[in-house]
Amino acid sequence: MNYRVGNHSILVCVLLGLDILLHAIQIWLSVPIFFDTMDYSGTMITPLTVLNPETVERIALNLNFSYIKLSIHFIIGFIILAWIYRAHHFTSTVIKAKNLRFTDGACIVYFFIPFANLFMPYRAIKETWLASENPTQWQNEPTPAVLIVWWLLFLLQIPLCLLSFTVFAPDMDAALANGIALFAIVGSVIAIIQTLAFVLIVLQIQNIQNKYKPKISSQTKPKDVPKNPLVS
């Protein structure tokens, strides 16, 4: 299992590409809704029934697509968590980095612990990267800027994307639909940048860990067995 990090990284990058495509579709669906509902704001509730039927249909499609996207994100997230586990496992068992603060399992568990998930997953990924690069003195290595950008955008896009989720109803306020479209657009743009940053992180960690594979191959290659002269 230790030697499949590279292949798993390729799968993760492909799925992250799919994630970017989903966010791009969300933007494509949300932009017309935002402009079609810009004039309906204020304290007065304006039901969607006063809008163009095509706009109402687009709003329903956009909200339903949000739930489809969320379902796909669960699958992508599961595979990303598996990659995080494998990458850290490679660091701890193959590279044998010193003074690691996280176990392989803790890298995953912290994503699901309230408050701790605001900073511990970032520290776990940081440890995986730096300990792969400098196994003995990784604590002294500077933090790559892309890691900081990725995590800040990750924390920012989550509430924006959550605010864009609601259940479609024909009597929905047009101003609410406008706000949902705005959150969906901004959240998706941030999510695309954040995903691109994570692709760079995955590729960089893979590139670092790939340097250890020739050494592993030479250590595991079976030695030549002397030929028995009595055997033809």
TrEMBL record:
Residues 64-206 form the DUF4328 domain. It comes from the Bacteria. The chain crosses the membrane at residues 12-35, 67-85, 106-125, 145-168, 180-203. Pfam families: DUF4328. Keywords: Membrane, Transmembrane, Transmembrane helix. This is DUF4328 domain-containing protein.
